[in-house]
Amino acid sequence: MTGSTVPFFSPRLFEEDRETVLRLVHATGTDPGQRFILGAHTRALEERLAESLGAADVVACGSGTSGLTMALAALGVRAGDEVVVPALGCAPLASAPLALGAVPVFADVDPVTLTMDPADAEARITPRTRALVPAHLFSTMADMPRFVALARRHGLRLLEDSAVAQGAVLRGTPAGLWGEAGVFSFVQVKTFGMPGEGGAVVTSDPELGRRVRLARNHGQAEGERFTHRVVGHNSRFDELQARIQLHRLPGLADRLARRMAIVERYGELLAPLAGRGLLVPPPGRDGRCGYVYTVLADEREALVQALRAEGVEPHVYYPRPLPRHAAFAPYAPRGARWPRAESAAARMVSLPLYPGLTDAQVEQVAAAVRQFVERSPLAPRRPEATTP
Ligand SMILES: *Cc1c(COP(=O)(O)O)cnc(C)c1O
């Protein structure tokens, strides 16, 4: 083993803000207004995010998951509707439609970007389909121009799961604004993570924003307590977290840039191994984000063991497609297959990626991967598994 150990998750997520966080806990607790949710700081955070994105509205809420559910409801998704989602991704993609009584319809993914394949999604559209929910995955945005065209062609609503892609831009349009609405998650490990639960719905449609605002606080309009206009949720945003996020916002651009620099360095060091049982994310910066760096390895378990032996902690997600979970299998057609999602789930390995990684740690991680590939008895090509 060379060098230090490299943990997968940053062990010091908020260390640099320690003093400020302590001060803000005190300031919030002793504020004469005694306002702990949906106050002036939440509003200020929403306005700053809306300005920086060029969005009509940003609605801070309790989590990315509840943001997805509320945005789907605001888009008119109702019980019995079908919502096309990727077969590979995180649970809320399936559970958000189900929370509304709608049915998730799983579409296969692109073999390289691992995001929902527009052609496969189109093949699954039926007269009951109401909405499409492409999701950006790890470091690569979904093919949003094609999803926008697909939604128009079939008269469908388009919600963009941009929970992992805050700060990413595709052809000049930020992640979150390609869809009629998008969501961000601020849970600790996300690119604008914070010490707790929270998220936001972003939209260029003020009317959608108004509906989500009503939904997040029991159907009450702001300044109109105990008047419930619609059945809503408790998905409110903490004032303490809003203060912390306002403090962290000016540093976000630098942290995102550091993440992207690490993505590019991994790409430079690992791309030459292509065709030897390893596939890396596509090159370039457009439509890319620095959330998680995921490679596809034909010999995944051996690679995981080899990385650990070198002091590098990898992480395997997602180990199985959504319709292969007990929770969601009942909603998938019997006998259906998602060959590319299944193949990816069997090969995905994610490498450490966070702003606090040193250049030396990045080199150490890449060297451990390279050493594994070069020593692997399987190194002589299995091109059928690695070319798109
Ligand atoms: C994290 C995540 C969510 C959910 O966000 P939470 O804030 O954890 O509820 C939704 N979709 C994707 C793709 C995510 O990565």
TrEMBL record:
One Pfam family in the UniProt entry: DegT_DnrJ_EryC1
Keyword Cell division: no
Sorted UniProt keywords: Aminotransferase, Pyridoxal phosphate, Transferase
Keyword Transferase: yes
Xref: PANTHER family: 3-OXO-GLUCOSE-6-PHOSPHATE:GLUTAMATE AMINOTRANSFERASE, TRANSAMINASE
GO molecular function: transaminase activity
Broad EC category: transferase
EC number: 2.6.1.-
SUPFAM superfamilies: PLP-dependent transferases
Official protein name in the record: DegT/DnrJ/EryC1/StrS family aminotransferase
Domain of life: Bacteria
Originating organism: Streptomyces chisholmiae
Family: Belongs to the DegT/DnrJ/EryC1 family.
